[in-house]
Amino acid sequence: MNTVPPMATRQRCHSENTILKSFAPNRRTVSLLALIAMSVLAVQMASEPAEAQSRAAQQVAPIPGLSRQPSAAARAALLDPNDAVVLLLDHQTGLFQTVKDVPIRELRANTVALAKIAEQAKMPIIYTASEPGGSNGPIMEELTTAAPGAKYVARKGEVSAWDNADFVKAVEATGKRTLIMAGVWTSVCVAFPALMAKADGYKVYAVMDASGDVSEMAYSATLARMTQAGIIPVTTNTILSETHRTWNRPDAAQWGALYSELVPHYRAVAESYRKAQEVAKEAGK
Predict the structure, then answer these.
(1) 238-241 — which CB contacts under 8 Å span 24+ positions?
(2) Is 189 a known active-site residue?
(3) Dihedral sign, Cα of residue 70, residue 71, residue 72, residue 75
(4) Cα distance between the two ends of the chain
(5) Where are the alpha helices (DSSP H) in 122-263?
(6) How far apart are CA 238 and CA 240, in angstroms?
(7) Helix, strand, coil distribution of the chain in percent, nearest 5
(8) Which candidate in 189, 210, 226, 258 is catalytic?
(9) At the topology level of CATH, where does 79-244 sit?
């Protein structure tokens, strides 16, 4: 039996194969198509953050007193007090006796100043202690005077405040996504909840000079650990300046008083300026 197809059939098959090959993409075509697809995707991905920033800029209220409103990205680079809650963790007099990395007088003064900054900026304040009736001692007495509107949450022995259901519920109830933390010890009472809250999606600031630890080594190791985790280390003066933001505001005098309290040398600057103004005024009469 002859299995070879007739000449006409072979020619037709050859023509069909040629046509199919002409439409089949070669490697260069596939690579080009892939490159185009990747370029389109990259453009889409690049445009999404810009569009999101534009939408965010339109949704947030302008910052009063500024001659130029920052972009969404620039705005996010600094603290937004409207989205922040201050968390003061275990500022207990017994623990103060173990602090070696900052003078106790400065630690207490900075903690009070931080509370007053929050009060002035109308940021909610939550403070807590793991065992206020134990050897760690009571909460420093100046705190409630400086922040009469602060909310106290008693823990049930949990070392990390983020392990206490009532504390986390109090934070969640504020609706804020930026946490400003300070406490004693830095390596434990600040670091543990800071790391956990950061993992849960919060933006976290650690106020290092309103916190204290058992040694310089403990402070340094904790600073490195928190920074690597994306927690933002700051000082009380940084929080004051980022919250204050501009002197072009009706409550400028109250903010000036906070600077004078936190930085005693700044009080001398203010006093000399006022005296110079008085002298100039008398000379002009």
Answers:
(1) 239/79, 239/114, 239/117, 239/180, 239/205, 239/207, 240/113, 240/117
(2) yes
(3) negative
(4) 130
(5) 142-146, 165-174, 191-199, 216-228, 236-244, 252-262
(6) 5
(7) 60, 10, 30
(8) 189
(9) Rossmann fold (3.40.50)
Q: Where are the domains of the chain?
A: 79-244, 252-283
Confidence (pTM): 0.77
Task: Give the helix ranges, DSSP H, for 80-215.
Answer: 93-96, 104-121, 142-146, 165-174, 191-199
3-class secondary-structure state, position 243: helix
Reduce the DSSP state of residue 84 to 3 states and report it.
Answer: strand
Instruction: Specify the residue for token string 């989205």.
Output: 83
DSSP 8-state symbol, 241: H
CA 186 – CA 86 distance, rounded (Å):
15
What is the chain's pLDDT, residue by residue, as a tens digit (285 residues)?
555 555 555 555 555 555 445 445 555 444 545 544 555 555 565 555 555 544 544 467 899 999 999 999 999 999 999 999 999 999 999 999 999 999 999 999 999 999 999 999 999 999 999 887 888 999 999 999 999 999 999 999 999 999 999 999 999 999 999 999 999 999 999 999 999 999 999 999 999 999 999 999 999 999 999 999 999 999 999 999 999 999 999 999 999 999 999 998 887 887 887 888 888 888 887
Report residue 96 as tokens: 């103060």
Q: 150, 126 in Cβ contact below 8 A?
A: yes
Residues listed for the chain: 285
> Tokens 């600057």 belong to which residue?
269
Three-state DSSP class for residue 39: helix
Show the tokens assigned to 23.
């439409």
At 157, the amino acid letter reads G
Nearest alpha carbon to residue 193 among 162, 170, 223, 225: 162
**Residues 107, 96: contact at Cβ < 8 Å?**
yes
